[in-house]
Input
Amino acid sequence: MKAFAKLVNDLDSSNKTSLKTEAIQRFLRDADDKDKLWLLALFTGKRPKRHVGSGLMKQWAMEIAGIPEWLFIESYSSVGDLGETIALILPPPQQQTEKPLYAWMQDIIALADATEAEKRYFVLHAWNNLNTTERFIFNKLLGGSFRVGLSSKGLINALAKHYALDETAVAHSIMGEWRLDDVEFEPLIHGHYSNTFLSKPYPFCLAYALETPVERLAPLSEWQAEYKWDGIRGQLVKRAGEVFIWSRGEELVTSQFPEVVATAQQWDEDFVIDGEILPIKEGAVLNFSELQKRLNRKLLTRKILTDTPVGMYAYDLLEWKGEDIRLRPLQERRALLEMIVESYSPASIQLSPVVSAADPESLLQLRETARERNSEGLMLKHRRSIYHTGRKKGDWWKWKIDPLTIDAVLIYAQKGSGRRSAYYSDYTFAVRDGDMLVTIAKAYSGLTDKEIQEVSRFVNKNAIEKFGPVRTVKPELVFEIAFEGIGYSSRHKSGVALRFPRIARWRKDKTVQDIDDLETVKKLIT
Amino acid sequence: MIQDEPLLRFCSEGIYCVPGRFYIDPWRPVAKALIMHGHADHAREGMQHYLCHHFTVPILKARIGADIQVQGIAYNEPTYLNGVKVSFHPAGHIIGSAQIRLEYGGKVAVVSGDYKVQDDGLSTPFEPVRCHEFVTESTFGLPIYKWLPVESYQQQMRQWITENQARGKTSVFIGYSLGKAQRILKALEGMGDIYVHYSIARLNEAYVSAGIPLPEYRNLDLREDVKKVAGKIVIVPPALADSNALKRIPDFATAICSGWMQVRGARRWRSADAGFAVSDHADWPGLLQAIKATEADKVYVTHGHTQTFAKYLNETGIYAEAIKTEFGAEEEIEETVKAEKE
Output
């Protein structure tokens, strides 16, 4: 655990990629292979089932620390993380025990069959043998929700560097479904298990926002333009007759979209398609808020399936008849994709249409009208581009429509979690509705650290009540809220829901008298 | 003598001693001010007359003005002000910091200002004083705040320097120029050449003149050539934390030294490379220990987590009340953010 705790600490204490890479390499050098495997498992979301509820952990911690529940809650709202709150309130450990990460994980997994008394004994014993950082990590491991300050890209790059491997290959090897009990570390990262996993997705190719005037993309004929769709980016994998859908968060979402799966099953060959899952009805793409009704449901009723049918707009073809074709130029991949999709009768998998514009001016006009199609703007892809791993500058650009904006007033503030737990950084904003204020959006980002400190001071001075995590504040600070789309929603009091709301800027020049009213906001809905 | 007249009243100008007709650490101009320590939120300008510990006198003069009317007093040296017996007692917060004991008509009150019970080896250690009424801070009044022993955090800071030295990096520590900077200096003794920003060096004089030895250090002015500090140790005040001036130092890593660094989120929030939970305030066990030792019947909580801390005291059978003051207004958010006027 010491080596792992050191890694977590090192990753936490630097923003510099080089230092993070160095920390990972140190871990790869020092740690046991089984611990390294666990590092990969935790990073790729393969956590053991939770066997000790957070309620019990909290209960035991309060007992040992001798503090009442309300004080625990106050502490929690200052820390912003349950595992860390527990680690901090416990008395100092009486002993120090060193056990590797995998041994802890074995013990944690073995709790599946333990009685509550046995669990309690195990957890209390661990707490009494670990320092604060190790306790925090232990609590997170126990809770199955471990996150550290490192992107999967950062981990992949460090692994590739340390073992002198290709980054794409490492990404491919460690992504997807593998079971800890079935693999060993070295063979895994060297890709020895790759072929055995039918479902394995490729890393998504991601685009940067266009930074230069579109005129610079000359000649324009070299570029393929498509609408940028606002749904769920997904990878549709069919191998040996089996169909899988991966989301960009590398989660398997196959069961949520039976329409797409049914279509894919009717196609003859194996393939991997990159596309967007969208609510599509009578040939038109619907507002994203429609898709939200479909997401994360345990049961898809016939009514839901009829009311909100989904389909996939195919962007790209990554694999065809078992062959990885990502290194072929886009125009070739696209031609193949068109041939395949068009050879089947119109179904729930369609082509994401390519739009053509003779000159930058008409391209700009197309972009301006994108929102009418429930699209967020345009994508510009170089016709000779390969399908890159991850985010790469130069070949693919996203060119979004300028966001919609409204002016709203801050009415609730809450301390952030993680990095922002010392400040009020989560805000709820309201617009006017007659004589009342009605909440319109929550936003977490868009202000600089300095501005967040300034808002926090305002909240401290102007909070109407003091207990609990949420502060109601005097409606005084006005912010410009930017968002990508807007739809009707029965979930929100205001009756509307904003898509991707964030703070565009602090309007210190405006007062609460100047904020927008709900009727004006509703007029933005197309 | 009127039994019902309170000894202390909390007014819009500050904490007022009713029979003594003077204020303690007032935030508005008054005739007579007793000052508990030299930090800016406690020692403000505009008082006609100041009374503080001997060690605080040069600090007040440096910060407020050389021409102020200020009188120094030793610890445990009683004096009478309008019939109130007044004495200063070590608070262990920073150099010259004091709790002020007031006795009148058989009733004793102690106003403690900022304090810590951990002995930092520089300030005169905290001394518990028995009283009927005790005025306490609660900057870190939550059970998540428990400081490591002095040796442990010193060892962590030294370890961090060793790692930086191995990479040829300059180690930059950020801490309050009065109190914290000197503790950092002491913790790093023998680790290599230490440069301190001149605003800190000026306050170091207060320690030296009081006979408190500090490790050897060199003055640093970031406007001058800073190449000489490469790979060395540097201590700067928080005002310089994200400044362009600091960026002139070659290849450096920063560490913030503040009690807020106890929480991972706060450490990650600041763009520093490391955070050490070193504080000049009492931690949770320290606050409780100090309060119990006073045996007070009534506790006033002046700043920090006032409501929470007062509620907890009440539940544990100690009558307590949260008071609104203007102490630590900035500290409630972030001790180290406060820019020092220089």
